[in-house]
Hints:
By secondary structure, this protein is an all-alpha fold. Helices cover 62% and strands 3% of the residues. It has 7 helices and 2 strands, in the order H-H-H-H-H-E-E-H-H. A two-stranded antiparallel ribbon has the order 1-2. Helix 1 packs antiparallel against helix 2 and helix 2 packs antiparallel against helix 7. The protein is elongated. The N and C termini lie far apart (80 Å). This is Tetraspanin. Belongs to the tetraspanin (TM4SF) family.
Amino acid sequence: xxxxxxxxxxxxxxxxxxLIGVGALTMLMGFLGCLGAVNEIRCxxxxxxxxxxxxxxxxxxxxxxxxxxxxxLKVELSGIVVDLIENYDxxxxxxxxLQDAWDYVQTQISxxxxxxxxxxxxxxxxxxxxxxxxxxxxxNRSKDLVEGRGFCTLEDPLNGTATYADWPVHExxxxxxxxxxxxxxxxxxxGVCTGVAVIELLGMILSISLCKNIHSExxxxxxxx
Length: 225
């Protein structure tokens, strides 16, 4: 079985912590913004502006890390997926969520393994069965995808043994499949990111404007001596 540290990487951990921090900050930001706008509290509006700016800078930093560290991330992901494939066990309930997630990736992208189906030959369970079974989520046959997880039995294997070349599975590895998906949907991804950034900038502008209005009103209310 895999130790917990084998299923993670420094880059992925950093990304996860950033996302958790941004999520928590977003909740706090929304509360402060509403409270500050309703009660016209300049201090809270200032905090709202600061939170928005921090989130925007964090998103830019995350994008830069992904862009400049993409090869490192690819290597780390490769190690994680290869370990997952080698130790894949449908009866292991402790790892069911992770294994189901990988089955979902293989099914949706129509791929098998990280670089190809050959990696599944290193799975301990399949080796013990002389590769006469194969991962159902890799199958290119609709009847195997009904279950969507676990292993399916190869029909009439030659001499009771087989190789990945005998399996009715997709030839494309998931690494290439994910890259193709990202390229095909790059416009949508950039559009969503740009839209989010524009909304955050508008929020910053509106909070500053409201803060200035409150300051002007307070100044006009001060009695002249």
